[in-house]
Every structure is written in structure tokens, then in C-alpha cells.
TrEMBL record, chain A:
Subcellular location: Cell membrane; Membrane
InterPro entries: ATP_synth_OSCP/delta_N_sf, ATPase_OSCP/dsu
Major location category of this protein: membrane
Name recorded for this polypeptide: ATP synthase subunit delta
A GO cellular component entry from the record: proton-transporting ATP synthase complex
Taxon lineage: Bacteria, Bacillati, Bacillota, Bacilli, Lactobacillales
Species, as recorded: Limosilactobacillus panis DSM 6035
Its job: F(1)F(0) ATP synthase produces ATP from ADP in the presence of a proton or sodium gradient. F-type ATPases consist of two structural domains, F(1) containing the extramembraneous catalytic core and F(0) containing the membrane proton channel, linked together by a central stalk and a peripheral stalk. During catalysis, ATP synthesis in the catalytic domain of F(1) is coupled via a rotary mechanism of the central stalk subunits to proton translocation. This protein is part of the stalk that links CF(0) to CF(1). It either transmits conformational changes from CF(0) to CF(1) or is implicated in proton conduction.
Membrane topology term: Peripheral membrane protein
UniProtKB/TrEMBL annotation, chain B:
Organism ancestry: Bacteria, Bacillati, Bacillota, Bacilli, Lactobacillales
Family listed: Belongs to the ATPase alpha/beta chains family.
InterPro entries: ATP_synth_asu-like_sf, ATP_synth_asu_C, ATP_synth_asu_C_sf, ATP_synth_F1_a_nt-bd_dom, ATP_synth_F1_asu, ATPase_a/bsu_AS, ATPase_F1/V1/A1_a/bsu_N, ATPase_F1/V1/A1_a/bsu_N_sf
Name of this protein: ATP synthase subunit alpha
One MF annotation (Gene Ontology) recorded for this entry: ATP binding
ATP-binding as UniProt keyword: yes
């Protein structure tokens, strides 16, 4: 049975992380990987092109060497290795998993915040401070989005937890109580 | 007294200060796969095995497979509204169902919700559906009989309270009828009955419920129904729900009878679930833990020690075989778990021998201790008699020149088989059974023509009821045969006055 993407990503990310951690190059590698992920996100189809069979091997090799430009040795090796083993389609998953490890090390959390209206600077700071306290984190990275459907309040997804303080789910709850 | 506004408003202020807008904090996951009653979800890293999970549309699920990357969930309800990407949240609770007296007389689904349209069930207690069975020190051996009201069972395969007796046979051989008759016979016996219908047609369940209602048995019965149209997870948990409801009464010191009709359907439902959850299939494609599924369920039937109130739960699981094959996987499993089996034979059923119990293969491993003394006395040699009759009968088919002793044996055997016939929903008291079998064992019936045996039996019961009620009462009370020759004389008197159909014909011709 072939391994699924998640298992593969976990193994590669762990190996890479432990390697760069030993050499104290975590921060630099992290920055490079984020940039790499940006490239993949900007160029839709890059991942599947590299993993697929539509392109000739030489074209792929050219693409890979383009990707490797300016990268440190470890990242270069990672790209080469994934290419050689035909795991190019796992690249983004590996970077995500690396980021998770990086967050755990630096006590940083990513929080998806959904609000009805755009947050202002003060609200943003307050929210970050509160979330940092609740999750025991040093740093909070907010990933904001606006959804007028929730009417008011805020919904935060972080660390597999959902903090739901939205007006719409309160109304839903009240409706359920009334129906019963 | 005047209203002190200031005092009141200060109180209200205090209350308001404490009132906070509560933010719900929940652990959530994301659905990555939905199909055929099963979902997989990412996240939910702390979910427990068997934990109840809630999908965003309000449907509940039960965590089954906890794997490194995701959680396999069985969906307890309508899964058509669940989409990939929906959130699932933990509830922190293990699957529970409502239990208590309020459920008596009701028809409920495996989650304890009413199905009979008689309104809400106002229970106050709940109980987890999976519970560890009572241990060695919490039990007591089986010693009190559970009368089924069916002669051949009470005589040959007696069932004790707290026993697990399997009812096994092909389709349409009267398995459910035996179970229902047993429930009907528990009237005024202070036994709570639970009938778990698994994977049956709604019309069949309805008919069974109506039968129970007609005989006044529904008042002390709970019907748990997961019909054929319910998704597999509901069929899978139905027997555990029934057991949880029964345990509540058992731990309250009461006697409970629970019927699982039938466990082969539950095994099929569990097989379906397991295959969709991608657990490896084993023999007949059943998963590896199919034995444990049944053993942990049936182990919950017990007779509790006096310290725990002395309650009991008797289980009558039902298994359907294909063409009488008891060596298939599920039948052998359940036969080895239970304390005996009642084997129903389709050939006998169609030959008119109903209930079609195969005396040779039906056994009760612990019920003998629970059988009343009087019954033991009159039915002691019954099994051997039937066995030797069957042997002789197949042999005698070839020739007609038989010596007198053989003929006598054959005629006794034929009458024995005739006596063991019993109509549907006509349970008999133990004293009536004892007197009938007494008449048989003492040779009173030998002279009665075969066609008149059943009439003889019912008229004997009426005669005893009218003239010798004291004998009935004494058997009922002491459990022993009455001392002296009162019983012998009573039966002899009746036999003398009994008119066979030939006698009657002669009388009318004159």
C-alpha cells in the first residue's frame, strides 16, 4: 500500500527539521521554505507538472534547477531528493508540516480569524494578546478573513480548536433550544 | 413593606456583572471523506475511542478508528447532509442512551428516541451503551428458572435466570415465535423484557409489537428497533443499547429478559462498517473482532450476587443459519459463547412438529440446576426416550413385523412427540406442563389414539383446573410433585372418563 501524502510529509519534514536544528539553521531554512511555498502557490500547476508525465525529463530538470537558485544547501538537497524520488507533489505538505514544527519550537500559533467586519489595529492587538495568553504562545500569527454571514463577534480556529463567539451560532443555539 | 429599589438594583447590577458572554471552546476536525455511514476526519487529536462526535448539521457520530493521521467515524443518523470539509466537534462524552422505568411499553430506536408516536420519553437517567460485564465476584450461579411456557423447552432445555440461551435455525422455523412466547409468558412474573429487533422489516416489527400488545405483554417490555432501512451503525449499536437499558433494571435488583433478534444481522452490519472503515477482512469477510463484538455483548447477561441486589439478565440471542449449516462462522462463534442452544429444524417444522425443536442438538448447559424438581422428575428420561424413538422410527420404516415391545416403544414415542406440540402464543404454566408430562411418563396416554392426544391434554388441564386446583397450587408453590397418590388418582380418574373420538362416534350412531 502506498503511503499517503500526510505520512510522507511528516517523515520528510521531521528529517529536515532535525538536520537544520542541529546546525542552527532553522530560521534561515524556514524563510527559504516559505518563499518556496509562495512560488508553488503563485504558479498553480507547478506541483502537478513536476510530478506528472506531460513534461519531458529535461524540461523538468531545468525547472528544478530554477527552483534551486539561491537556496541553501539543505533546501537544494531537499528539492533534488524529492524530485529524484518522485515526491514533488508532497512539497507543499512538507513545508506545512515543517512550519508546524517550527511553530511548536518557537511557541508560535497560527490562528484563522473570521469576523463580520474588518478588524482595526487595536482590536487586532487585543485579540493576539488574548489568544497568546489562552494558548500559552509567545507569538500569534493572525490570518484574517471577513464573513458578513456571521453577523457579529468572532470565530477563531487555532491548534485544532474552535473558539466560537459569533452571533450567528448563538442564534442557532437559541433556535435549537426553542425547538426542543 | 415597601419595595427597596436601591437594594434590588444593586443586586441586579451584581448579577449583570457576573453575566458574561460565553465563548464556546471546542476541539474540532475537518471531514475528509464521507460514504455509506462512515466518515473520516482530520484533526480531533484527543478524541477517545467510542466518543460521541457532533457534525455541523447536528448529526452524531461515534469515533471508531483512531489512526495516526485521521479518525474513522461511524455516523448515527442521516449522512446525506454531511459534506467533505464540514467540521466535526468533540463532545467529550461516551455514547449514552436514556434508561429507566419510563421506557417500559415504548418502542425506541437505538439512540433511545421514541418511534411509536406516543410523545417524548421523560427519562432522567442515561447509561453508556458499552459497559464492562460484571466480574467473577459480582456474580452468582444460575438457580432460578425462567419459565418459557413452552413444554419442550422447559422440559428438555430449561433456561435459568441469568443464562444465555441461543435460539438458532433456518429462516421461517419459528425462532421469533419462541422468543415472543417467552416474553408473553413473563406476565405477572415480575420480569422486565427487552426485545431488540435488528435489521428486520418495519412491518414485522409492527406485527410483533401488536402481538405483544394484544397479550398484554407490552406493559413490561421495551422494544428497541433498528430496522432494515436504518444505516449499518444503528444496527450495530442496537443490541448494546438494549443491554444498557436492561442493566439498569438488573442493577436495580430486578430480573430482565432480553431478546436479540437477530445477531446475524448485527454481524452483517458490523462487517459492512468494518469493510468501509478499511479494517482487514477475515473469514467470510467478517472483521477480526467479530467474536469480541458478540462475546462482550452476551457476557453482560448475568445473575448478580446478593450484595448487588441479586438481579439478573437472561439473554436469548437469535441466529439465522443458511440451510441448517451450524458450522458457519457466526453460528459457531455464538454457540461457543452461549450456555446452550435451542436448535430449530425446518424439516420438523414443515412436518407439523411445532415448535420444531431438535431434541438431539438442543442443550442447556446451566439450566438443569434451575429446573423445578417436579419437572426434573417427569422429564428426566424424555431426551433419551425421544432419541431412541427417532432411531427406532427410522429403522421401523423398512418392515412391519415388529415385536410387541418395539411397537409399544414406537407408540409411546409418537405420543411423546404429539404431546410436545404446542400452539402459537399459548404458553402453559409449569404445573400444567408437569401434569401433562406425568400422564405421559406414567403411561396414561399410551391408550389414547394419536389423533386425540392434543384434545386429551387440553381437557386434562381443564379437568385439573376445575377439580384439583390444589394439586396445581402445590406444584407451583413447592416445585415438587405432590406427595401421596393424589395426582396419580386424579389423572387416572380423568383418563377413565375421557371419551375418545371413536367412543363419541359410537355414541352418536346409537
Amino acid at each position: 500500500m502506498s503511503l499517503d501524502k500526510k505520512t510522507v510529509a511528516r517523515r520528510y519534514a521531521r528529517a529536515l527539521f532535525e538536520l537544520v536544528d542541529a546546525d542552527n539553521e532553522v530560521d534561515q531554512t524556514y524563510q527559504e521554505l516559505i518563499a518556496l511555498r509562495q512560488v508553488f502557490e503563485d504558479n498553480e500547476g507547478l506541483e502537478s507538472a513536476l510530478a506528472g508525465v506531460q513534461m519531458s525529463l529535461d524540461d523538468k530538470k531545468a525547472l528544478v534547477s530554477d527552483l534551486q537558485q539561491g537556496a541553501s544547501q539543505y533546501v537544494k538537497n531537499l528539492i533534488q531528493m524529492l524530485f529524484d524520488y518522485g515526491r514533488m507533489d508532497c512539497m507543499v505538505a512538507i513545508i506545512d508540516e515543517f512550519e508546524r514544527r517550527y511553530d511548536a519550537k518557537n511557541k508560535r500559533i497560527h490562528a484563522d480569524v473570521v469576523t463580520a467586519i474588518q478588524l482595526d489595529k487595536q482590536q487586532r492587538d487585543q485579540l493576539s494578546a488574548n489568544l497568546a495568553k489562552r494558548f500559552g504562545a509567545n507569538e500569534v500569527v493572525l490570518n484574517e478573513s471577513v464573513d458578513p454571514e456571521i453577523l457579529g463577534g468572532v470565530i477563531v480556529h487555532a491548534d485544532h480548536k474552535t473558539l466560537d463567539g459569533s452571533l450567528s451560532s448563538k442564534i442557532k443555539q437559541i433556535r435549537r433550544l426553542l425547538v426542543r | 413593606m415597601s419595595i427597596k429599589t436601591e437594594e434590588i438594583s444593586s443586586l441586579i447590577k451584581k448579577q449583570l456583572a457576573n453575566y458574561q458572554n460565553q465563548v464556546s471552546v471546542e476541539e474540532t476536525g475537518t471531514v475528509t471523506y464521507v460514504g455509506d455511514g462512515v466518515a473520516r476526519a482530520d484533526g480531533l487529536e484527543n478524541a477517545m475511542a467510542g466518543e460521541l462526535l457532533e457534525f455541523s448539521n447536528g448529526v452524531y457520530g461515534m469515533a471508531q478508528n483512531l489512526e495516526s493521521n485521521d479518525v474513522g467515524i461511524v455516523i448515527l443518523g442521516d449522512f446525506s447532509g454531511i459534506r467533505e470539509g464540514d467540521t466535526v466537534k468533540r463532545t467529550g462524552r461516551i455514547m449514552e442512551v436514556p434508561v429507566g422505568d419510563e421506557l417500559l411499553g415504548r418502542v425506541v430506536d437505538p439512540l433511545g428516541r421514541p418511534l411509536d408516536g406516543l410523545g417524548e420519553i421523560k427519562t432522567t437517567k442515561t447509561s453508556p451503551i458499552e459497559r464492562k460485564a460484571p466480574g467473577v465476584m459480582e456474580r452468582k450461579s444460575v438457580s432460578v428458572p425462567l419459565q418459557t411456557g413452552i413444554k419442550v423447552i422447559d422440559a428438555l432445555v430449561p433456561i435459568g435466570r441469568g443464562q444465555r440461551e441461543l435460539i438458532i435455525g433456518d429462516r421461517k422455523t419459528g425462532k421469533t415465535a419462541i422468543a415472543l412466547d417467552t416474553i408473553i409468558n413473563q406476565k405477572d412474573q415480575n420480569v422486565i423484557c427487552i426485545y431488540v429487533a435488528i435489521g428486520q422489516k418495519e412491518s414485522t416489527v409492527k406485527a410483533n409489537v401488536e402481538t405483544l400488545r394484544r397479550y398484554g405483554a407490552l406493559d413490561y417490555t421495551i422494544v428497541v428497533s433498528a430496522s432494515a432501512s436504518n444505516p449499518a451503525p444503528m444496527l450495530y449499536i442496537a443490541p448494546y443499547t438494549g443491554a444498557a437499558m436492561g442493566e439498569e433494571f438488573m442493577f436495580g435488583g430486578k430480573d430482565v429478559l432480553i431478546v436479540y433478534d437477530d445477531l446475524s444481522k448485527q454481524a452483517d452490519a458490523y462487517r459492512e462498517l468494518s469493510l468501509i472503515l478499511r479494517r482487514p477482512p477475515g473469514r467470510e469477510a467478517y472483521p477480526g473482532d467479530i467474536f469480541y463484538t458478540h462475546s462482550r455483548l452476551l457476557e453482560r447477561a448475568a445473575r448478580l450476587s446478593d450484595d448487588l441486589g441479586g438481579g439478573s439478565m437472561t439473554a436469548l440471542p437469535i441466529i439465522q443459519t443458511q440451510a441448517g449449516d451450524v458450522s458457519a462462522y457466526i453460528p459457531t462463534n455464538v454457540i461457543s459463547i452461549t450456555d446452550g442452544q435451542i436448535f430449530l429444524d425446518s424439516d420438523e417444522f414443515y412436518a407439523g412438529q411445532r415448535p420444531a425443536i431438535d431434541a438431539g442438538t438442543s442443550v442447556s448447559r446451566v439450566g438443569g440446576d434451575a429446573q423445578v424438581k417436579a419437572m426434573k422428575k417427569v422429564a428426566g428420561t424424555l431426551r433419551l426416550d425421544i432419541a431412541s424413538y427417532n432411531e427406532l422410527a427410522s429403522f421401523a420404516q423398512f418392515g412391519s413385523d415388529l415385536d410387541e415391545a418395539t411397537q409399544a416403544k414406537l407408540s409411546r414415542g409418537q405420543r411423546t412427540m404429539e404431546v410436545l406440540k404446542q400452539g402459537l402464543h399459548e404458553p402453559q404454566t409449569v404445573s400444567q406442563q408437569v401434569v401433562t408430562l406425568y400422564a405421559l411418563s406414567k403411561g396414561f396416554i399410551d391408550k389414547i389414539p394419536l389423533d386425540d392426544v392434543q384434545r386429551y391434554e387440553s381437557e386434562l388441564a381443564a379437568y385439573m383446573h376445575a377439580n384439583h386446583q390444589d394439586l396445581y397450587d402445590s406444584i407451583q408453590k413447592s416445585g415438587k410433585l405432590p406427595e401421596g397418590d393424589g395426582l396419580h388418582n386424579a389423572v387416572a380418574d380423568f383418563t377413565k372418563s375421557f371419551q375418545t373420538s371413536d367412543d363419541k362416534k359410537k355414541a352418536t350412531q346409537k
